[in-house]
Amino acid sequence: MQYRILGRTNLKVSLVSLGSGGPSHLGQKTGLTEIESRKFVRYALDQGINLIDTAAAYRESEVILGRALEEVPRDQYYIATKSRPSYEGIFLTKYELQAQVEKSLQRLRVDEIDLFQFHGIRKSEYEYTVEYLLPVADQLKKEGKIRFIGITERFSDDGTHQMLQKALADDHFDTIMVGYNLLSQSATKTIFPLCQANNVGVLVMIAVRRALSCPERLENVIADLKKRDIISSTALPDQNPLDWLIDNQTNSIPAAAYKFAAQPNAVSTVITGTSNCQHLVNNISAVVGPPLPEEKIKKLRQIFGHISEGLGD
Length: 313
Ligand SMILES: NC(=O)c1ccc[n+]([C@@H]2O[C@H](COP(=O)([O-])OP(=O)(O)OC[C@H]3O[C@@H](n4cnc5c(N)ncnc54)[C@H](OP(=O)(O)O)[C@@H]3O)[C@@H](O)[C@H]2O)c1
What we know:
two-stranded antiparallel sheet, alpha/beta
């Protein structure tokens, strides 16, 4: 495993971290039993992963993590969790947020959350979050229940990262979580330079998701981009459009996609949302192995670099 510093938190985090949401939810959506999910979490730590991302909203993920990590010394992992600022259009009160964080602490069976994040914030939710909910998180930080505070975006609705641009300009947060992948590269221009300038830690999500792990889905995404004239109809073949990324150092599209996501210096960690041991090992080998060749990165930038929508699902 390789490790990078998570911005101003100074935490030394594994370049590949484990996500407990997305299409797998630690196996809750893919048919693992709870025992298997817990074993998978321990397996991830054995591979050198020391950062795990979760959320109150990820079904039983916090509970499973709490049980899986109970016997693990607390200095061997960092836990990042999150709360949404609103449910069904109604904002949380300060007391509700405080209660949510207390519940996360109980479910995770820890005294302190290493990184508390405001979850999937829309631009329209940003002002309320900063004005009313951030002071609650700051207070919990003073009380020793939260170490650092971050914010994550709602990538599918905010492909140009409007909310994160505002958050970074205001400089309220220790970390951000951003959607970045080889189809949606706009964070390179609008987000990463600000993070580097202000020493904000960057967690990358949706590096692979469904579009880059399911060949049929990828073909559909490429066909749609061609149909809408977003990429040229001759830019890529209709079938297996990204297979030219595969060579003797990159054995699959997911491998190429995780390598791509880990490549910018601004990125502290790439979250992998797998719950499959073999995939996990492959993903780590991809990221810590040789990077994609420069000419392939250049070609990806030529084809997809101008896209300003959140693709990947
Ligand atoms: N707004 C937010 O705050 C937000 C939004 C989205 C995600 N997140 C966080 O970011 C994490 C990562 O996002 P993500 O779940 O989209 O993760 P991802 O790693 O981009 O995609 C995970 C998907 O890719 C598949 N996959 C992974 N490696 C593979 C491989 N080697 N071969 C084939 N398929 C592979 C997984 O299936 P298998 O399980 O079969 O491997 C899963 O379906 C989430 O778990 C969550 O913690 C946060």
